[in-house]
Structures are given as structure tokens and as C-alpha cells.
Amino acid sequence: MLAIKDLSKRFGGLLALRDVSLEAAPGDITAVIGPNGAGKSTLMNVISGFIAPNSGTITVGGEPITGMKPHEVCRKGLARTFQNLQMFTDMSVVEAVVTGRTRHRRASLVANLLMTPRVWREEEEAADQSRALLETMGIGSAYWERRAGDLPYGLQRRVEIARALATEPTYLLLDEPAAGLNDDESTALGETLCKLAERGIGVVLIEHDIELVMKVSRHIHVMDAGTVIASGSPDAVRANPDVVKAYLGEENAS
Ligand SMILES: Nc1ncnc2c1ncn2[C@@H]1O[C@H](COP(=O)(O)OP(=O)(O)OP(=O)(O)O)[C@@H](O)[C@H]1O
Ligand SMILES: [Mg+2]
Q1: Given a cut of 80, is residue 13 above it in pLDDT?
Q2: Residue whose C-alpha is closest to residue 192's, from 222, 160, 219, 221
Q3: What is the reported pLDDT for 250?
Q4: How far is the CA of 14 from the centre of ligand 1 (A)?
Q5: Is 114 exposed, middle or buried (0-12, 13-18, 19+ CB in 10 A)?
Q6: Ligand 1 site, CB within 6 A
Q7: Phi/psi at 215 (nearest 5 deg)?
Q8: In a mutational test of the pocket of ligand 1, which residue from 7, 8, 17, 41 has the highest number of ligand atoms less than 8 Å from its CB?
Q9: Is the per-residue pLDDT at 88 higher than 80?
Q10: Residue ranges covered by each domain of the chain
Q11: Beta bridge partners of 3
Q12: Which of 91, 220, 107 is nearest to 162 (CA)?
């Protein structure tokens, strides 16, 4: 279990997260939705170690990870994606994915410099694994040696998820992965996320595409103004008057 308990984060006078508690299980897709400014990205930044919380705890399989640095959080089995591929655009698609795998490299610096057989073998393994992940993400061999930054936007988003998967995470945190995708791409993404969950990965999905969320999630948490206002199955959340109110405003809710 990924368990978040009473998490709070203050930015000056703004309480961006107020006593947020939620859980996500391996093999499930858990969604976090809510209007703009609800605190969803802040929550992801805190979980992944990019922002320290003011209070509260985060545990993975019972082990506390609160306050750890991003690379330490990653080593505990939590991977996240970023909005874009910025740092990796000049690499080939395969190389961009291989960068995700570095936490599994064991060969020493000297061995790397001398390019020993072991290093060579590890590089080959890393490239093989990256190609397999790209296949999983629906990116065929025609794209593998192309410059990552030259791929269409929708495919770059998939490369970014493959890069996160290369860390071999137990949990995959996605912040608006469907942003900028067309309907077909969004449907395909949903199918891919279900496939990852079937393999045992716990997917935490922050998303504005409600149709996608309703289709793939087992559990949905709705945030508004820094707090979780509703949690439950897609059907329960859809029928919750507080949720309708948060999205449409008071006057439209009744
Ligand atoms: N680094 C920061 N410094 C100050 N305020 C911040 C910072 N990051 C976020 N905020 C504020 O915290 C609140 C929550 O922002 P956050 O980005 O988490 O919302 P969100 O739910 O991800 O919204 P969106 O759906 O638009 O992405 C907003 O009012 C935002 O302006
Ligand atoms: Mg956000």
C-alpha cells in the first residue's frame, strides 16, 4: 500500500493541502481529480519528494518515505512522469528510456570507463528492456532510433511513461497524462494503464479527462481547495452532490 495520512502543505498564506489522506494499492488505478488549483500537483510533488510537507506522513508498504529526496523516493519504488520530455529531447527514443534505468546499474565508474564485458552486457540489457517498455507503450521499432524531441506530442508522453517504467516502480504517479491527447489517443492510454495495473503496478492518476478517469479507475478521490471532499467508486463519486458542487459551483448543483 501507498498510504498518505494527514498531509498538509502551506505556501505562505495558502494552505495548498489540508489533512489529505488517501491510499493506493498495487494493481489498482487510483485517480485524483478536482478543479484547477485543488492541490493535485502539489500532492504529487510532495509524494515524489520534490516538495517537503509541513505535516503528515507517506508510507510505502508500511515504510515511511516522508521528506526523502526524489531519487530516494524512486528507489523505494515510486516513479512519476513530468509534463514534458525537456531533458531528453536530444536523445534517441531508446536512450531517453534507458536514462530511467540508471538506478539499476551496478557497474563501477572505472568499469564504465573501460567498457568491460559486464558493462557492455548491462548496456545491452538496458536497451533491450527499454525497447520492450516502448512496445508496451505502443511505440513501434520505427520510432526507436529517432530523436525523442521529434516525435509527435502524444508519443512523447508515452516515451515519458516508458522512462518512468524503466525504474521498475511499484507505483506510477501520472500528472495529467491525457492532456493534449485526442480521443483515440486518450482511449489507447486508458487501455495501456489498465495493462500496467494488471501487471501489478499501482497507478495514481491525476487527470482532468473525467471520461478516462471514470472508465479506468477502481477508486477516485476528489479534491477541492486542498482537501479531499469525496472518495469512492466511479459510480459513487459521480452521484455525490458535493462533487457536482465543486465542479459546477453552488448555483448549478441543485
Ligand atoms: N510553488 C508554489 N508556490 C506557491 N503557491 C503554489 C505553488 N505551487 C502551487 N501553488 C498554489 O497551490 C494551489 C494548488 O496548486 P496545484 O498546482 O497543486 O493545483 P492542481 O490541482 O494541480 O491544479 P491544476 O488542475 O490546474 O493543475 C494553487 O492555488 C497554486 O497557485
Ligand atoms: Mg496540476
Answers
A1: yes
A2: 160
A3: 55
A4: 10
A5: exposed
A6: 11, 14, 16, 34, 36-42
A7: -75, -40
A8: 41
A9: no
A10: 1-77+169-254, 85-167
A11: 23, 59
A12: 91
Mean pLDDT across the chain? 90
86 C-alpha to ligand 1 centroid (Å)? 21
The CATH code that applies to domain 1-77+169-254 is 3.40.50.300
Q: Is the distance from CB of 144 to CB of 164 less than 8 angstroms?
A: no
Model pTM? Answer: 0.90
Asked whether the beta carbons of 73 and 48 are under 8 A apart, the reply is yes
Q: What letters, b where the CB count within 10 A reaches 16 and e where it falls short, cover 230-250?
A: bbeebeebeebeebbbbeeee
- What are 147's three cell numbers? 530523436
Q: How far is the first Cα of the chain from the last one, in angstroms, to the nearest whole number?
A: 37
Q: Of all protein residues, whose CA lies closest to atom 7 belonging to ligand 1?
A: 11
CB–CB of 38/226 below 8 Å? yes
Residue 198 in grid coordinates: 494488471
Please name which of 99, 75, 210, 117 lies closest in space to residue 160, comparing C-alpha atoms.
99
